[in-house]
């Protein structure tokens, strides 16, 4: 969140302190309390115009992803360490699976190797090694939130900017622990993969993020096999 606040215009909670407790191996963040409701809770009650307003703001924040990525050529987490998305999780750090990667091809191999790491048949991993380079190729790196769900967006109505027909809704984006530099398809694909389809939120994602229709089908299969 410190990086996002400094480098972008995306609204995030203010961080007051960071500290670790080595005795129990936990890290802590002391940050601003956001006294608002989640977008997930409010979504069904919003008017079409209010949804359009929120989505337009989220789309404008999406444009900052290229700016923060212009000097980055390595797929890595926000702290420049191992990737924190669940698809790359291993009990112990495995350089071939979750370390920073300098090419998209290396990232593809990591997802295939994760398949055999979990004691699955290597034939399927070999199949992924054949296919993934044709799907996941030629994407530039983008700064990525990594969990773009409406439960991670807080909403507050601004009483000073209300009109007769609509409220002005301010947003704050939470849950940045999985953020980092990933291929440009990653944000859209993870947003779709996380959908529960209990409302129409998924139909608005294309107005916020660039579409990667082919990539999302493949990444959803990989996430189901490698994490669920």
Care to describe what's here?
- It comes from Blastomyces gilchristii (strain SLH14081).
- This is Phosphotransferase enzyme family protein, variant 1.
- The protein is built from ten helices and eight strands.
- With 228 residues, it is α+β, with helices and mostly antiparallel strands.
- It has a single domain, classed as Aminoglycoside 3'-phosphotransferase, Chain: A, domain 2, CATH 3.90.1200.
- β1 and β2 form a beta hairpin.
- α6 runs antiparallel to α7 and α8 crosses α10.
- The longest helix has 15 residues.
Features:
228 residues, alpha+beta, Aminoglycoside 3'-phosphotransferase, Chain: A, domain 2, 3-stranded antiparallel β-sheet, 10 helices, Phosphotransferase enzyme family protein, variant 1
Task: Give a topology summary.
Layout: H1 2-7, E1 15-21, E2 26-31, E3 37-38, H2 39-42, H3 48-62, H4 64-67, E4 76-77, H5 95-98, H6 104-117, H7 122-135, E5 141-144, E6 153-158, E7 168-173, E8 180-183, H8 186-193, H9 205-208, H10 213-226
Antiparallel strand pairs: 1-2, 3-6, 4-8, 5-8, 6-7
Task: Sum this structure up briefly.
With 228 residues, this protein is of the alpha+beta class. It has one domain (35-226): Aminoglycoside 3'-phosphotransferase, Chain: A, domain 2, CATH 3.90.1200. The chain is 38% helix and 16% strand.
The global form is globular
Going by CATH, the architecture would be Alpha-Beta Complex
Give unreliable regions as ranges. none
Q: Helices and strands: which structural class?
A: alpha+beta
Calculate the mean pLDDT score and round it.
87
InterPro entries: AGP_Transferase, Kinase-like_dom_sf
Protein name: Phosphotransferase enzyme family protein, variant 1
């Amino acid at each position: 969140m410190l990086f996002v606040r400094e480098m972008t215009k995306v609204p995030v909670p203010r961080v007051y302190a960071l500290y670790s407790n080595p005795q129990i191996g936990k890290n802590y963040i002391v940050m601003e309390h956001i006294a608002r409701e989640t977008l997930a809770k409010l979504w069904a009650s919003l008017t079409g115009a209010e949804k359009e307003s929120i989505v337009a703001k989220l789309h404008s924040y999406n444009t900052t992803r290229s700016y923060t990525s212009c000097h980055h050529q390595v797929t890595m987490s926000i702290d420049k360490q191992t990737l924190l998305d669940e698809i790359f999780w291993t009990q112990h750090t495995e350089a071939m699976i979750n370390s920073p990667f300098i090419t998209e091809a290396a990232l593809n191999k990591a997802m295939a190797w994760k398949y055999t790491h979990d004691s699955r048949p290597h034939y399927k991993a070999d199949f992924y090694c054949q296919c993934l380079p044709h799907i996941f190729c030629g994407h530039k790196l983008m700064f990525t939130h990594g969990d773009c769900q409406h439960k991670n967006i807080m909403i507050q109505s601004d009483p000073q900017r209300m009109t007769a027909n609509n409220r002005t809704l301010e947003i704050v984006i939470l849950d940045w622990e999985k953020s980092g530099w990933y291929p440009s398809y990653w944000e859209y694909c993870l947003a779709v993969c996380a959908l529960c389809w209990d409302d129409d939120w998924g139909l608005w994602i294309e107005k916020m993020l660039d579409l990667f229709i082919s990539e999302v089908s493949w990444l959803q299969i990989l996430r189901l096999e490698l994490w669920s």
